[in-house]
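User: Modeling request: complex.
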Amino acid sequence: MPTFRCEHCKGLYVDPQNGVSFPHACTPPVDPKTGEHGPPDPGARDESVVVDAVVGKLPDGTPAEAAAQIKPRIRGRGAGRVMLDPGDILSGADLTTIKDLQVRPGAAVPDP
Amino acid sequence: MAAVITPDRLRSIVYGPLPGPAAPPPMYRMRFAQRDIQPPAAFRVTPDDSLVLGVRNALAGVNLACQARLWTDEGDIVFPEVRGSPTSDRVLHFTAVQLHYGYLVSAAMWATGGTLPRRGQTYATMQVVRPPLAAFNWNLMMAAGYITGSKVLAWPYGEQEDSIKGPGMLYSIFGTTPAVTTDWTQVVPTGAVWRVRGIRANLTTSAVAGNRQVLFWFDDGATTFFHCHAQNTQGPGTSITYHGVPAIPYTAVINITQPVFLPPEVLLFEGWRFGVVTVGIQAGDQWGQPHFLIEEELND
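Assistant: Request completed. Predicted assembly structure:
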């Protein structure tokens, strides 16, 4: 259960948890007066999985059978993420630890 | 330490050692003419047919096996088989096994090994289709449903179970701890449907003057459905834990705790989100790691 930091919103998260992935998505901008949030920031990170094509023809005209070769990808990469620790060092953390993790150097890692 | 009985082990107990190729048991040969046994004509297959397995899986480390029984034209019972570990991205993946001349007698798909899924984690379908696979000429839908440690997807007599009918898998998970002076959000994973059963999150406010009003929101990825607001505001220099509880009546704040009403059944589709907005948030305010109780089913 590695601990990551999103380099777009600086949010801290652990993924996967108990063998299951729960994707990180940056918080959309909010109007602090009304409490209404807008659409997601176009440059935000969203690790939700998308599949570009399942059936039919691909944009380049490739027959649909090749769709099975398409690898699912995340919706938005944003500014990437860094791994702070290969284990879960976030759960139960106090504010001092959270503040430390928000600025601690991390190792750049590929997207899930 | 006692060995864990897995379906693999159980299978070996039932069948015993598999016969070697040099000594096929005589009962494997079921010649139609000799034994006057009529083949199941409705399930005639040829090399143009494929046994196609569709799997959506959320749990890493799951291993699945599928084995069919095919009564060949030569009178042999053969066992087309495929084994593998599905991806854990909740995306629908298909695996095709080409068949050959004969009659399909049965098929089963089950979980093996030490990581066994629970209901809501591995949803599978079995069907016979004809190429092109992209067009999926669905000749025979055999079974659909969740596979668990002791629940096998089987045909004939297999059911076609919807992927969403409850109850799902329960997860106690943590969301993203946001940056300072920022609110948090959680998105429903692709391929999943969530029922939000509980939310717990702590807000520590800085010394900057001003009251903060906390509210939870739910949207479809763009447009907000509704807000659920805390009954009282939070002042500077305080730490309050907010508890989103389905159908809880509004009650007085108990010191460091505030209950927040949630609708009794919050059902969210993939890509939909929920989160918090702190109206009047001030520099230095910090949310702790939010904690959720989620019931998840796969969305097929």
